[in-house]
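Example 137, ligand adenosine-5'-triphosphate.
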Amino acid sequence: TNRTFTMIKPDAVEKGHIGGILSMITEAGFRIVALKLTQLTVADAKEFYAVHSERPFYDELVTFMSRGAIVAAILEKDNAVEDFRTLIGATNPADAAEGTIRKKYATSMGENAVHGSDSDENAAIESAFHFAGREQF
Ligand code: ATP
């Protein structure tokens, strides 16, 4: 499909980077089709990241992702999932390319400013987790 799902994570919201990150997203040609400021409960974060439940960083990830407000959004563009992964950059900001969102705003492997879906299937699942149909434009 031509849609992907993103979150601006608590670290970036805390530091006041919502506007800067949304600007990078729209300047890269993505159209915002759904958008909200919200917060994940611990249970939400556990469910959202269930695929990582056996990883050593799971508890840290759940605590981090539920500690404050996030921005959830659905984005539309040709080749959205792959192009958005390119725009956000590598998971570890030390490896993130120049011009990427994580290069500019991430501080560590865990606190890396943004999420981007890794497949069309997960983009649909993650979008439905956060947004009702009538909230998607
Ligand atoms: P995301 O799924 O958030 O877009 P990603 O696909 O780049 O990130 P994953 O490997 O799926 O990275 O890991 C999911 C998230 O878990 C990372 O974005 C990061 O916040 C956290 N994470 C990953 N590896 C570590 C680690 N070694 N230590 C702490 N947190 C980590």
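Summary: Helices lie at 10-14, 18-27, 42-48, 58-65, 80-88, 101-105, 120-130.
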